[in-house]
Specification:
Length: about 80
């Protein structure tokens, strides 16, 4: 149930949902990538866990690179 204080929230859309999704997901992935170095450091002495976090970090780096290309292509088309 909407109240008078919230009845107009969401009426204005700054961009298409799919464009917002890409920007939001990039932000989340960048935050995760930033943390992986700490996770690797925390796994000190546990080779398999260190290898796991390094693999995840590499995969995330690749995902970020791909997502940034998609965002750049959308920006070139004027989608933002």
């Amino acid at each position: 149930m909407r109240t008078e204080a919230t009845e107009h929230i969401g009426e204005t859309q700054g961009m298409e949902n799919h464009d917002h999704d890409m920007i939001h997901d990039l932000s989340l992935r960048l935050d995760a990538l930033w943390r992986y170095d700490q996770y690797i450091a925390n796994a000190k002495g546990n080779r398999s866990l260190i290898a796991f976090w390094k693999k995840i970090k590499d995969q995330e780096s690749s995902n970020i690179k791909s997502l940034k290309k998609h965002i750049a292509n959308h920006a070139k088309k004027g989608c933002f």
